[in-house]
Amino acid sequence: MTCKQLGGKCDQQLSAETWDQIVQVMTKHVIEKHPDVTKEMEEMHNEDPTNWAKEIKPRWDETSED
Ligand SMILES: [Zn+2]
Prior knowledge:
Blueprint: H1 19-33, H2 35-47, H3 51-63
Helix pairs in contact: 1-2
Bound molecules: zinc ion.
């Protein structure tokens, strides 16, 4: 999956074996590359911690089916 598909801003490929891993990889990537996105994600997380996963997990499930 790309950063964009995960709610980020660039086309960098981020890969992981499991959902938990991709969450960690994505979190690290946005902290390093997109501090503004980190802030948006934090605010979203504060409002509803399940919001990001709800939106992104179905995309992960689709792309990891092969
Ligand atoms: Zn990115």
